[in-house]
Amino acid sequence: MNVDETLSAPLADLSPTTVVPPPWLKMLIQIARNCLVVTVILALLALVFGSILRPALEAVNVNEELTALLSWLLIAAIPPALYLTVGFTARTLRNAHPARALVVALLAATLVYGATLLWNAAFPAAQAAQGQPSLEMTFAQADSGVVIESIVAGSAAEQAGLRVGDVITAIRRESIDLAALQSRIEEEPLGTPFRLRVQRDGEEFQVTVNSIASATGAGNAALSRAAAGRAVALVVTAVGLLVPFNWLPYLLLGVTLLPLLLGYTWLIVATFSQETHGLLPVDSTGSLGGLTLSNWDFLTEVSRRGSVWTYTLNSFAIAVIMTAALLVLCSMAAYALSRMEFRGRRLFLSFTLILHGFPAVTLLIPIYLVLLNLGALPIIGEYIGFNTLGGIALVEIAFGMPFGVWLMKGFFDNISWDMERSALIDGANRWRTFWEIILPQIRPGLFALGIFSFVGGWNTYLIPATFSTGTRIANLPVYIQQLLGETNPINWNEIAAIGLFQMIPILILFVFAQEYLLNIYSGGSKGSS
Amino acid sequence: MKVDIEQLNKSFGTVVAVHDLNLDIRAGEFVAFLGPSGCGKTTTLLMIAGIYKPTGGVIRFGERVVNTVQPRDRNIGMVFQSYALYPHMSVFENIAYPLKLKGVSKDEQRVRVQRSADVMGIGDLLHRRPGQLSGGQQQRVALGRALVKEPDVLLFDEPLSNLDARLRLTMRGEIKALQKRLGITSIYVTHDQVEALTMADRIAVMNEGLLEAYDTPDDLYDHPKTLFIASFVGNPPMNILPIQAALEGDAVILQNDALRLPVRSERALKAAQQHGDLLMGVRPEDVTLSADGALCGEVFVVEPLGREDMIDVRIGQHRLAALVTTEKRIRAGNRVRLDINADKLQFFDPASKRSILWT
Fold first, then answer.
1. What angle (nearest 5°) sits at the alpha carbon of residue A387, between those of residues A381 and A388?
2. What does DSSP assign to residue B306?
3. Pick from A424, A437, A443: which is nearest to B86 by CB?
4. Is the C or the N end of chain A the one with fewer CB within 10 Å?
5. Residue B159 maps to which CATH number?
6. What backbone torsions phi and psi does residue A263 show, to the nearest 5 degrees?
7. Cβ partners under 8 Å of residue A361, min gap 6
8. Using the beta-carbon criterion (under 8 Å), do A441 and B81 form an inter-chain contact?
9. Is the residue at B266 inside a domain?
10. What is the pLDDT of residues B137-181, one digit of tens each?
11. Whole-angstrom distance, CA of residue A187 vs CA of residue A416
């Protein structure tokens, strides 16, 4: 069949009038351009890892395989990437005409094949250099050591005097087995001299053999890699072409999410088992089973460190104080910043933004001094000084304010001035306008900030860990850290259980309030002065 | 209640929004503030409402100076372009809100809200939320809320701009009728001259913070005192042509590089006494097709307006818009002869931009 016909015939139906340039040509140009871009990017990256970063690392005597592996992966990724590119470019056409998608898939195969050929032609040396280092012998494991099974005729090994049946016991003085020998051969660069300690008929002697690139081995490896690459490419193309386009992001997200999901699965499994092997619960003998509730005993036990409920209550108190204070303070501050014009308003806004980015840890010492002095105040000092819940909450509130103010300001900014003017004309004063007219309208924002503050206060670690001593006012995260720091063996499964316990209120909150949390991004992102 | 504004000024930082404004609004009068966006009309309104404090000058409600009086103590009602209904309250609560703030008893609230809602024709919507209402209904609620406390002054800030064209027409008539019936002094801000011309007793035309004119609609249309009013009031806008006038016998010759027009009219005679360059204004409806017309040009664009066609005629480098009946079937590219109604001509001094005919 004439290729031109297959390409242009369906298109003729789609575009009866003459279009310059013809759409199929435009499509081809687009495909070619995309392929070129992808190839160049991947090849450049491979070059960076393989030919620049790796020698650089070797120059400073860091011997590692990651860069080489990355370089190899990138080169291996070129064919599937090309398939993908062509597949995606063709996707838009698939809906218009299935036949054309097929043509494009064939085109993709051709392109990949062409690219591979070109690569091989352009870098023959690179291909050869990738041959596996070899001693040109085959081995088998025996009781006494590694037995030579065969030797390539005329090879360096034969010339060095090795024979079939010799037993290699060690390299230099390091005794080895089959796996160790093979990995040593593979790992050392080409041309490395191996000083083999060999036993023959009870005698022991030493032979030096240099490793060389094995032509057949390299060829085989390259072939199997190429085959694997084609297979992957075909699967990827099939997926790219067949899965509806709008599913693909989910597919990718799912794959990247997997480690996280596995982590949470482990957390849940671990809390109900004595030990875990991977994701499987096992008992102390290592066989499947061993499900138990004993990890949750902390709920009722009172240990040397006190009951877990003390810590839970402390966590709760910090979270509640923080939420309440932030709601009141942030909404009022944000209202003023959104609605009133006063000297230094813009400066204040940009300053709070900087504060938001300020790392809390750098302020720990000054805050310690502040808390000490606050503690010296008469009457209230007892509640807001160092080593008090009030003091911790106070610091948390201070750190939470900048974000909260900006978030709420975004919500206030979205309310029209007319609403407020209308209320003023209707007879309300400023305070009533704020309370009766404006606040009810930013209820979603208040919810969002409230939940955000609560979660932040519930999970906070740095401030309580720094400004509390002992167990009296420590919260749950601090408690977990204390358990991790114990000298006796750590019961990871119990810690997992406490972690899960700490997560429960948050999970409940998220289930019921995710709608409001999403509002942060609708309201907060619009914040500007 | 009458409203007096004397030497009113307002500036935001270095930007002057309103400059030396003087206005007197009689009790029960309906006054429109007309001008392009940014001309200071809404700023003036908000100063009357008490939202903005004047930088200088005096605002009087009756004999009382209200410059520093809080909005809630002015007894005014205001309707906004965005309606500004409180979305978390029902229609009833919205309308009752001013009464609630005044401390009116619940029973009286119910009676007065119902009365106000009935006047606006929304008596059966009281339990609904503003979000469940159409634009027109929301506007009625806003009006009801403004009226319920029986204000001395009603303020409108482009209240019809968010409505569709048809509804705007209906509401225009309703608001005007309502205002006449209740006799409440009203100030109506708009950039739509048709609204101003049809509704207002007097129109204050503002431009760049200055009062350009304060007159009845008819006077503004027929006797524009400045070039700005002439070109701003009236739709389609007035044609303005640079011209020189000279006496020749008892006729006046109006001419420039592309046209020569002999006319006989009092207005032209007055213009001829002014030597040098002039700007001549003529409304499109005063330009007529005429086989023996003195002007000749090529039709550039034809805009069908339904009843009439508006044609854009090129005479040399000058453009002249004319309204002609659709029956003439004028097409772009046609050459036409035109005549001008000399009794309706306007003349302006190009330097001062003021009218030569009216002072």
1. 55
2. S
3. A437
4. N
5. 3.40.50.300
6. -60, -45
7. A462
8. no
9. yes
10. 999 999 999 999 899 999 999 999 888 888 888 889 999 999 999
11. 70
Q: Is B106 on the interface with A (CB under 8 A)?
A: no
For residue A6, the model assigns a pLDDT of 43
Regarding whether A405 and A323 lie in a shared domain, the answer is: yes
For residue B17, the tally of other CB atoms under 10 A from its CB is: 21
Q: Given B179, B205, B232, which residue is the final one in a domain? A: B232
Q: Is the minimum CB–CB distance between B196 and chain A shorter than 8 Å?
A: no
Q: Into how many domains does chain B fold?
A: 2
The alpha carbon dihedral of A511, A515, A516, A522 has a sign of positive
**Spatial contact of A173 and A150, defined as CB atoms under 8 Å apart:** no
Query: A58 CB contacts (<8 Å, ≥6 apart)?
Result: none
Give residue A83's pLDDT.
73
Q: What distance in Å separates the CA atoms of residue B259 and residue A300, rounded to the nearest whole number?
A: 105
CB of B276 within 8 A of CB of B356? no
pLDDT at position B96, please? 95
Residue of A nearest to B82 (CA): A418
Q: What is the pLDDT of residues A130-154, one digit of tens each?
A: 556 677 777 878 777 788 877 777 7
Quickly state the pLDDT bin for A426 (edges 50, 70, 90). very high
Q: Look at residue B36 and give its three-state secondary structure.
A: coil
Q: Residue B48 domain-assigned? A: yes
Q: Are residues B287 and B334 in the same domain?
A: yes
Total number of domains in chain A:
3
Query: Could you say which DSSP state residue B354 is in?
Result: B
From the list A338, A510, A321, A506, the residue with the least C-alpha distance to A407 is A338
CA B354 – CA A353 distance, rounded (Å)? 54
* pLDDT tens readout for residues A213-248: 665 444 455 555 556 556 655 666 666 566 666 666
Tokens of A377: 């105040």
Residues of B within 8 A of A428 (CB-CB) are: 72, 97, 101
Of B51, B102, B149, the CB nearest to A421: B51
Q: Is B84 on the interface with A (CB under 8 A)?
A: yes
